[in-house]
Amino acid sequence: MRLLIQFTDEALADFRWANFDEVEGSAALDWQPATENELPVVAAQNPHPVVIIIPQQCVYLTRIELPEKAGRQVLSAIEYQVEDQLAQDIESQHFALGDTSENPVSIAVVSRAIMGRCLALVQGHGMRLSRIIPEIFLCPWPGEGVSLTEGHDGCLLRYGTYRGLKCHLQALPAMLELVARDVEIGKIRYYGRADEPAPELDAYEVERYALASVRPGFVEAPVIDLQQRDYQLSSVWRGLAKAWKWIGLLFVALLAIGAYNKAVALQELESELDGIKQQQYELVKSFLPKGTSANDNLKKLLIERMRQLQANEREQGFLKLLLDFTNAHSNYPDVEISRIGFQGGQLSFDISSAQLKDIEALLESVRKLGANARLESLNIKPERSSGRLVLEGGSDA
Questions:
Q1: Among candidate residues 320, 306, 304, the one with its CA nearest the CA of residue 373
Q2: What is the pTM of this model?
Q3: Which of 70, 140, 308, 365 could be a cystine partner for 214, CB 3.0 to 4.6 Å?
């Protein structure tokens, strides 16, 4: 038996939970909603190993092609292989790997703050942590094609062992067009409860399956367990370290003596390092703000410069714009979407609402997420207002 705890947003406060029998349980889980204050009670009344499920919008899934016979050094520095995709300080992110025998290698990226919050909750409430997984692994996947099921506050769309995304129903056709660039869709398998009708998709044939007839996607199947590296509570190495603690302390003492004897050599190395830093500074100083010196954190300054360049060139990308709009639109369900278009680096939505203030509030909400947005062709009528919301950005690679 497992206790599944799925948080609803990045704050990891409110959640839903369900007990799951790994031997006989199906994907038709009996989810129960709960608030942050109820977590101690739920944990105490269900003392099973815990599987924590992170909202999919908080996890970035990607893949990286590695050279043949890549060594452990390459895998241990995998975060630097996707640094240009993130355009943010990788030190604030946690990177978890899928099957490293495959190439490309699948990677899941999540905030270190979220991982730290997970471990604090587990330790604070005395829970036995089994796994920490992204929400997409709730979706059943038979090993080929495209699978679709209902997640929390959105649809889960899975099209690979470690590939998938989450979106609202209105954005599903546009997301399928994006997925079709990478995989051949054909028929879509929809897994729903007995009273859930399958979504109508004009461009694709949808086959409906009962959730009760299949297992969740994380059972007896490959997943990316986010509990890796610094967040591996059950690591064998931790147990060995505890058993060999005194030997380790003696080893540290010997290292300290050796470090003293090599003080002169270290000074020479520091001089060489200063020379390397100066060379790096000379290479990149033309891209840095005035007043920057070789002693400044050049890496962070370059990352900030990348952000500015991305903003100036409006290369947010189709998927980023669509996700920003979807997140903002979830707060204004009365605003209806009649059409979605993408052309010339512009993503547009034909929207309408009985309340003009809802349209204006949606525009401001999108802008607060960092998107360059504007309203066009605004038509104000007493009974209903309509217009076109346009987001500027570049095309996805």
A1: 320
A2: 0.60
A3: 140
